[in-house]
Design goal:
This protein is of the alpha/beta class and 317 residues long. 37% of the residues lie in helices and 24% in strands. The protein has ten helices and twelve strands. The longest helix is centred in the N-terminal third of the chain and has 16 residues.
Amino acid sequence: MEFPVELRSEIERLLAEENTNRLAEAADRLSRSYRGNDGSGKRLAGSRRDILAYAAVRMPATFGAVSRALELTLERFPEGGFRTALDIGAGTGAATHAAALIAECGEFRCVEREPEMLALGRRLTEHCGLNAEWVSGDITAGFKGEAAELVLCSYCLNELAKSARTAAVKMLWENTQRLLLIVEPGTPEGYANLMAAREQLISLGAHIAAPCPHERLCPLPEGDWCHFTARVARSRLHKQLKGGDVPYEDEKFCFLAASREPAEPCSARVLRHPEINSGRITLKLCTTEDIRECMVTRKDPRFKAARKSDAGDSFAY
């Protein structure tokens, strides 16, 4: 899913008011702060320039990851369309914009603790005509009474200590009326945090809708982790701020979708990019039983589907 043109245009219009070199410095500082995040919940971005740099270099990646996660989830959640949505730790609203386009959400409530992020997020949703109410709040302080059909929490749990994550997941689920979507960085730490949240949510009565085709313990061996990729196009300014020449970047992410309603999980999920050889395609699959390699030849009726498959896609096993 491409980053919306009207959203990119408004961000770049705001960025034009800032010095490009200082924005690049802010983007680099922000990147180093997130890489060195220790889970203490400390503020990683606060000034207006920091937030504008974040919107330029991180908002498209977050939008891409949440969009991809929603697409994969809603394949297994046929009753699409949500009347209300709650975006916790909304940042500048990337997940909200993704849900507006893909999940057909009508009303949004966006909760964010950073005043500058909240102000920019509100401005961007207003510019794009979304029905979004922005309120100040912190995931660690609780948000009771904010229940919605769809609850979104992206790139938030990784900023919290273990005890705070457990409390946050409980409250996220308590505020979920139909579907909860959590997106985290596609790192071993992000995956470990999601697996802990998965175990907790199942104990609370949740049904796992995606990406897992089952609700048993993850069968991946130690040292491996489940993650997927969203390809994100870079604008000219994005490349300037990141100091790169490549016209795209690949955002690696993990996600978990938990439903109040019994889910219809896929029979298998493609875990890695398919290995394509002459006349055959080999897929690494997470199935309802375990991790398996599946070789599909030209004579197999699934060959066309296998050829189109990518990491994250469901596959009829």
